[in-house]
Design a protein that fits this description.
Chain A: GO terms for molecular function: DNA binding; DNA-binding transcription factor activity. Chain A: InterPro entries: Tscrpt_reg_HTH_GntR (IPR000524), WH-like_DNA-bd_sf (IPR036388), WH_DNA-bd_sf (IPR036390). Chain A: This is GntR family transcriptional regulator. Chain A: Keywords: DNA-binding, Transcription, Transcription regulation. Chain A: Pfam families: GntR (PF00392). The complex is a heterodimer of chains A (131) and B (365). Chain A is mainly α and 131 residues long. Chain A folds into two domains: 13-76, Orthogonal Bundle (Arc Repressor Mutant, subunit A); 86-125. Chain A is built from five helices and three strands. Chain A has a two-stranded antiparallel ribbon. In chain A, a hairpin with a 3-residue loop joins strand 2 (66-69) and strand 3. In chain A, helix 1 (13-27) crosses helix 3 (50-62). Chain A starts with a strand and ends in a 6-residue tail after the last helix. In chain B, helix 4 packs antiparallel against helix 6, helix 4 (139-157) runs parallel beside helix 7 and helix 6 (189-210) packs antiparallel against helix 9 (344-364). Chain B has nine helices and ten strands. By secondary structure, chain B is mainly α. Chain B has two domains: 1-118, no CATH class; 123-365, no CATH class. In chain B, the strands form five sheets. A two-stranded antiparallel ribbon of chain B has the order 1-2. A two-stranded parallel sheet of chain B has the order 3-6. The longest helix of chain B has 38 residues, at 220-257. In chain B, strand 4 and strand 5 (176-181) form a beta hairpin. Chain B has helices at 2-23, 42-72, 77-112, 139-157, 184-187, 189-210, 220-257, 267-292, 344-364; strands at 28-29, 32-33, 120-126, 165-170, 176-181, 304-306, 313-314, 318-319, 328-330, 337-339. The chains are: A mainly alpha (131), B mainly alpha (365). Strand 1 of chain A pairs antiparallel with strand 3 (120-126) of chain B.
Amino acid sequence: MFIQIEPQSDVPIYEQVTRKIMEGIARGEMKPGDTLPSVRNLAADLGVNMHTVNKSYHELEEKGIITIRAKSGAIIRSAEERALTPEQLQTIEKNLKPVVVEGMVLGATAEQIEHMIKKVFSDLQIPAEGV
Amino acid sequence: MLLGVFSTVYIITLALQVFVPYIVRETIIFGVTVPEQNLKNSALRNMKKQYAQFVGISGVLLLLMMIVCYYYFAQSEFMQGILLLGCLFAMLAVSMTLYWKNHQKVLKLKKEEQWGLNIKQVRAVDLTARSRDEMLPWPFYVIPFGVTVFLIIFTFRHYDQIPDHIAVHWGPSGEADSWRSKTYFTAVSLPLVMLMVQCMMWGTVDSIKRSAIKLAVNRKEESLEDQLKSRKYMSWSIMLLSYGFTILFTVLQLSNIYPSMTTGTWLLPVFILFLLLVLGSVLVYAWKKRKQRVNYGDNVVSEVMDVDEDRYWKGGLIYVNRQDPSVFVEKRFGVGWTMNFANPRGYIVIGLPLLILLFISFFSL
């Protein structure tokens, strides 16, 4: 699975890595049980500091998406293992709120925002090359 | 004999110099990153062609001059050495000068026409690439260490039988021409040099393994294939070199312990074989690189390009990038890999053994 990073973007690199990996899982390009490359290797391939990748992996672990094991590395958890908890749902809502608010202030309707969310869902379900 | 061997070295070096612009990544032209969107600029194509022609013709002229001078003017061995090396360096100087001129030209063109100014730079990575990496595992490079250790023990056990003078240098005819008096240190100096070279080779392969698998963002699949193969071939050729070197030095060391081995010039074929191995592996590597090179048929229509790393390449030749954890990166103008001079790891795996090697040579050879 390919991921793309923009070093000059305003979004910090660790966050870009986190997002791309999540997208890969959502799209089904990475399956539960797949291992991510080691922190050292991914840092080398991206040409970034090891801490950057480490930060991203820990973020993914905190979100309950991967498990980091000392020997076998970072493994993507299965759907059952990452069953959605009420707390996680709350976090998602919290993160979504400012975006929706921004839309409201600018005059977007509930339908428009709903449509956008549906669009994101359907976009990710069709495996597409390197979006 | 000397002329024949040297001419071979010269011709192969010349061929590599001539074809370098056609072996390196197509998006790197004379050490300058050119966006795929501007690749098919006719000025660039002409520059490459002119470079190849000029270096080729002047290289052949120098070779002819070298051969003529060798037969008519160079009488002593010293003069011959000066002549041969002088011609080789003159040829390299011509190609480097021309490289430098073209490097400046491409830089200017890039700036004037604002190449890549409005193109987003991205870095692509394949998360599964590492599981497909086929570089040889480390034991292949550690086995020769055993030979060296055995040789050192063997030398000490046969210390009394070694003649009082130990050969440390061999002339072009394969006969020893420089000796040192026997001490415990000079007796094992060859195996020690051998050990350092083996360390450097292992260190190089290990560092390449830890270095980036760099993809071309608009040609991901093809460039991944190229990268995986380059790494594989590189690890094979370094293994061959390491084994070849081990055999050569083992033979030399044994001939020191059993001087009767060196009667006649039978060491010569060993030297020549080693030379052939070195040159052969470079040629095969260059050939493979050329064959698997990612080709851009036309100007690429894309919103993105690879990250422009020109500012980390001093003169387009020396890589200094503090942020990059890679120790080795592929050369931008040349065949093979070069060190990231901002990475301290490189100084440890390459610099330290080299320093010890120089130290041994200085005090014993």
